[in-house]
């Protein structure tokens, strides 16, 4: 019974977010994803490269909507995506004939590696998974996937986060770099 009692929680839900905070989160996430998508659709169109991956949507939630979270800080954003991309590509190359196993090992190992390196960034788990289950275009990138899109896209979103999150007096980003 004690096990199940833990599932009821023991704190109240957080207070509501102000309209100003919602607006700045919207502006930041719009501009961050727009910058990455613009680079993808205007500079990389017609190439075998891609700049945008689904895990960047989750990164946007953190770096524009939860700016004070330890999971949203630059070290976590960049390091989490890079480490997870390396692991995802490596696991795919080793276990591509066993996709169910490659998927689970890539995500679990990326979480362990992010913990060990103090770079835990939840979207990193998706970055590792995308390296495994992604399209042929993603698989053809090989380790270039670490640089384009994982690192470069995260750097673009970080630059936007630094600019936008520091405009209002009520916001500050980052809380720390390392």
Task: Pick out its properties.
178 residues; mainly alpha
Describe this structure in words.
The model has no long low-confidence stretch (mean pLDDT 96). The radius of gyration is 18 Å and the shape is globular. The longest helix is centred in the N-terminal third of the chain and has 25 residues, at 19-43. It is mainly alpha-helical and 178 residues long. The chain has helices spanning 2-5, 19-43, 55-65, 74-95, 99-116, 123-133, 136-141, 144-164. It has one domain (19-164).
Helices and strands in order:
Blueprint: H1 2-5, H2 19-43, H3 55-65, H4 74-95, H5 99-116, H6 123-133, H7 136-141, H8 144-164
Helix pairs in contact: 2-3, 2-8, 3-6, 3-8, 4-5, 4-6, 4-8, 5-6
What's the N-to-C terminus distance? 41 Å
Largest sheet: none
Poorly predicted sequence stretches spanning 5 or more consecutive residues: none
Strand element count: 0
Number of helices: 8
Describe the structure concisely:
This protein is mainly alpha-helical.
């Amino acid at each position: 019974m004690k096990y199940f009692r833990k599932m009821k929680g023991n704190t109240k839900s957080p207070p509501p977010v102000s309209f100003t905070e919602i607006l700045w989160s919207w502006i930041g996430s719009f501009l961050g994803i727009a910058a990455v998508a613009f680079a993808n659709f205007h500079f990389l169109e017609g190439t075998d490269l891609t700049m945008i991956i689904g895990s960047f949507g989750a990164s946007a939630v953190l770096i524009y909507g939860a700016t004070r979270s330890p999971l949203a800080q630059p070290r976590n954003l960049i390091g989490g995506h890079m480490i997870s991309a390396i692991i995802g590509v490596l696991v795919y190359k080793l276990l591509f004939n066993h996709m169910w196993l490659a998927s689970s090992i890539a995500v679990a190992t990326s979480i362990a590696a992010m913990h060990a390196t103090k770079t835990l960034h939840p979207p990193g788990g998706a970055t590792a998974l995308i390296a495994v289950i992604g399209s042929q275009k993603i698989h053809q990138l090989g380790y270039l996937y670490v640089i384009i899109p994982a690192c470069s896209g995260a750097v673009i979103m970080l630059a936007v986060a630094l600019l936008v999150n520091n405009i209002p007096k009520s916001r500050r980003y980052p809380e720390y770099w390392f």
